[in-house]
Every structure is written in C-alpha cells, then in structure tokens.
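Cont'd.
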Amino acid sequence: MSFYKVAAAVCISAALGACANSTPTVNGDVRYGDAQAVETVTNQFGSTDLQTIAEAMARSLAQTAAGFKTRPLVTIADVKNKTDEYIDTRSITDSIRTQLLKSGTMRFATDIAGMREQTDELARQNTSGLYKQSSVARTGQMEAAKYRIEGSITSIVKRNEDVKDVYYKFSLIMTNIQEGTIEWADEKEIRKTSPR
Amino acid sequence: MIRRVLLVLALLAATLSQPAFAQTIASKVDYVGTVRFLSVTGLKAKDVNGLLNLYIEITNSDWDDQEGYYRIAWLDESGFPVWRDEAWKPILVHGGQIAKVLVNAPTPKARDFKIEVSADANWFGSTGPASE
C-alpha cells in the first residue's frame, strides 16, 4: 500500500514539475515594466512628466542650496493644480523632497500636512505619563523653517480635428519666510502632441 | 623655492580634484542600438558649488525631426553608481538641429558620469543596416 502511495506522489510531483516555469513566476497576463521608461500611452499628465518635473526642480534647488553656507531648512507648501486634469501635486513635491534629502543639500521642517501627526506625537509623549522623562521629546524645541517652497502647475490644451496639443508649465518658488523675499524660482515646461 | 613647491602642489591638488571627465565623448556615452541620426557631438563638464554640471549637445544629422531619449548615470571616482536609475527623458531634435541640454548632478558625491542615449530611429538587433 505504501508503495502505491509513494508512486502516486512521484507521479503528481512529476506532472507538476512538467507544468512549472523555469522562472519564479505564477503564470498570468500581467507583466512588470520599466518604471523609468518614457510613458506615451495618452497625452494626459503621466509618470514621465512627474519624474521629469521633480528631477528638474530638485536639481535646480540643489544647485542653489549648494551655494549656501549652511544647509537651508525649508518647508513645502501646496502646489496648486490649475489644469483641468486631476494631478496629485503632493506626489510631485514628495519626489522633490525625497531627492533633495538624498542629495544632502537641504533639510526639511515638518510641513502643514504632517503637523497634525507631529503635534499628536509630541502631546502623547508629554501628557500620557507612559514614557521615561529623560527620553521624552520636549515641546517648544521644534525648528522653524527659514524658507517656504510653493508653486503651481498650469496647462494650455488646444485641439483641432487632427491634433491635440497639451502644454504644461510647472512653476516653483522659494520664499525667505522672515524677509518675504523670493530667493529662488524655476519652471519646467512640457509639450505633448498626439493625433486625434 | 618653498613658494614654487607650494604652487606646484596646489596645482597638482587642483588637477586631482577635477572630476574625471577629461576623456573623449565616446567614452562618456552609451548608445542604445546603432546610431542613425541622433548623437552626442559636444560635451562639457564643470564643478559648480560642488555639483557636477554637464552641457550636452545632441545633433540630428537628418533633415526630419527625430525623437530621442537620454539619461545620466551618476558615478563616483571609482565608477560606482551614487544615484538610482534616472527616468529616461524624451527629447525632440528638429532636422539639422543641435539640441543643447544642461543638467546638474543630484549629489556632490557624483564625480563622474555616463550618458545613455536612445532614439526611435536607431537600429536594434535585426533591424540593423544589413537587413535594410
């Protein structure tokens, strides 16, 4: 009896082995692509536009910040979407911030979007009575940003019977918060044309 | 005499601290496929506030507009990558035009670079000149 069981197990294993792939994948119709490739599926705002804008702005900011005596402490405010499309502008500013932090040319203070979590954590550490006093982050010690980065994205869309043309302009400025002066500004333009 | 020695040492130090780009254009460019119309014909590099800046000229040798793509691999002195893969950037070069591209390194750690250039019209694999 045990001989039959072993034989059956061997047969099943062999059958499964014959069906198995030589690559570590589960067969299906899904393919992974190159996240850095130029995306031209439609002429709406896409991944290549996001990557190109974030890279251009981060590089320009890094070049300016590299000329400062000390690494500037900045905060990122809103980038207004003035186009007709839905564009997650937060994703663009997140990419810019990530690249600048990785480059080591700028420091970032908690922005308005992250302030709630920051103050909640401070309050929890200071008021819950759960933590050793020596390890508690003290209130009133947060560093204030010296510069604020904000901007906008606009578009001009034109179409005739043959062609649709989309022009994007992403503008960013960096303001000295105390003095109210604009210390840096840059733009990135993108044109996309497709047949209709 | 001491002044001369110091001057020579200073010049030597300045030369050694230069980014490793005093090489031929060909050694700094990787083409995807076989080039037909778009190629890098000019390349300058300089250090600005500790960041490597590149000025690249891409020439279209055809009379028609050509679409190409480029990106830079940023490397340290030993040729090790210091930044993740950049996204490919599309570039339209009009017929007979020399497109000028100015880019700066993302980090002061970048001391060397390699430019990757691709184009729709390039020959790839079996679409090479022999099969035309």
